[in-house]
Amino acid sequence: MVTNRNASCLGGTTCGRGVGVLTTIFASGLLPRMAKAPKTASSVRVPFTNTDGRAAFLHFLPLAQARIAAGKVSRPARAVSLLRTNVERGVAALLARQEAVLAKVPSADFAPLQELPALAAALDFATSRVPTELSDGEIAALLAEVRPVRKLTLGQLDIFAELGLVPAERVATIRAGTGPIDTARDAVAIVGLFEEFAASIGTKHPFTEEHFATLTRAGNALLRLLVPEAAKDGPATIGSEAAVRDALYGEVLERYETARELGVAVFGIKGLDTHLPKAHTRVAAKKVSDPALRRDETSKKKPPE
After folding, report:
1. Same domain as 275, residue 165
2. Residue 198: half-sphere exposure toward Cβ, Cα within 13 Å
3. Residue 303 domain-assigned (yes or no)
4. Measuring CA to CA, how many Å separate 44 from each of 37, 38, 39?
5. Are residues 112 and 28 part of one domain?
6. Rounded distance between C-alpha atoms, residue 118 and residue 51, angstroms
7. pLDDT of 181 strictly over 80
8. What is the pTM of this model?
9. How far apart are the C-alpha atoms of 205 and 167, rounded to whole Å?
10. Angstrom distance (rounded) from CA 262 to CA 95
11. Is 265 found in the same domain as 213?
12. Does 244 reside within a domain?
């Protein structure tokens, strides 16, 4: 694996020292003669590729904690959604040319790179766990969004409880308690009850997926803001949620830099950014390349005669 960690590969116009080294090796013709280190069955690494945010977060959490313990949290995360988009695009382009890369860099280890989309998903999930500083007015707006839907859905659950379709004591538990935190917990619990007893409830209610999505989104957002750190759902973390996020962010940047360095082998320096865009570059939409489509687009621009 290329181990250069020069950050200029991501933010500058070239890939820094790592690209220079690779370019020199390519020109010398030494790469075809580089032998792959033999691997035993026990040493073969199975990459984690599940891009479900929560599953990926739980898988990579020990890695993030190890980075925090080792002091490898050097910068705050930024533009996480853009980073994830570029990582997914770049890794897909590189993996599509895996054989060509191995022909020039036989020692390349693709397992950490195959994990990058899942790692980016974990970063995205970790970012959502970091409490957001909102004004009292913004919190009030979330509560105002939840309360009407909570009232209607909870009333429907009361009817279902009377009909014996859901446990009455579960509905009573949701109704108990007052205050913003209780309202947020109710929103999440209501959705859970509808999902749990979907077989008996079926479509015997007027609510849509949008209603349940509102309860889930606003309820969870309020819980992240209002519930103390120690009471949050999920595994305990070393330090703050922000530290976990930033540790995963650093891991994504380092692995993606390695991917870009390997990308030079097949795309060259000039073509690198087209196939593996820099981490935080906004990529413009592709131009129409098909002549027929270009003619069609041109004809649309002509004013009527």
Report:
1. no
2. 6
3. no
4. 12, 10, 6
5. yes
6. 4
7. yes
8. 0.52
9. 17
10. 11
11. no
12. yes
Between the CA of residue 171 and those of 157, 168, 192, what are the distances in Å? 7, 5, 11
Whether residue 225 contacts residue 134, with contact meaning beta carbons closer than 8 Å, is answered with yes
Token pair 């940047």 in the structure block, residue: 253
Same domain membership, residue 247 and residue 126: yes
Q: What is the pLDDT of residue 99?
A: 96
In this structure, the answer to whether residues 34 and 183 fall within a common structural domain is no
Better pLDDT: 35 or 160: 160
Last residue of one domain, picked from the residues 207, 231, 255: 231
Of the two residues 73 and 14, the one the predictor is more confident about is 73
- Quick check: 232 pLDDT over 60? no
| Domain interval for residue 118 | 8-38+48-130+240-283
User: How many domains are there within the chain?
Assistant: 2
106 CB-near residues (< 8 Å, 6+ apart): 31, 32, 34, 35, 36
Task: In whole angstroms, give the CA distance from residue 198 to residue 160.
Answer: 11
Q: What Rg value do the Cα atoms of the chain yield, rounded?
A: 26
In a domain, 1, yes or no: no
Range list of H helices, 163-290 = 168-175, 180-196, 198-201, 209-226, 241-275
CA distance 244 to 72: 11
Q: What is the mean pLDDT of residues 271-284?
A: 89
Looking at per-residue confidence, does 72 or 302 come out higher?
Answer: 72
pLDDT digits (tens, 9 = 90+) for 119-140: 999 999 888 887 666 677 888 8
Q: What share of the chain is helix, strand, coil (3-state, %, to 5)?
A: 65, 0, 35
- 104 and 145 part of one domain: no
Q: Read off the pLDDT of each residue in 114-123 and give the average, rounded to a whole number.
A: 96
In a domain, 296, yes or no: no
- The count of C-alpha atoms lying within 13 angstroms of the C-alpha of 66, restricted to the half-sphere facing its C-beta, is 6
Same domain, 203 and 64: no
Q: Kindly state whether residues 61 and 103 are assigned to the same domain.
A: yes
Q: Which two tokens stand for residue 262?
A: 């390997």
- Number of CB atoms found within 10 A of residue 84's CB: 21
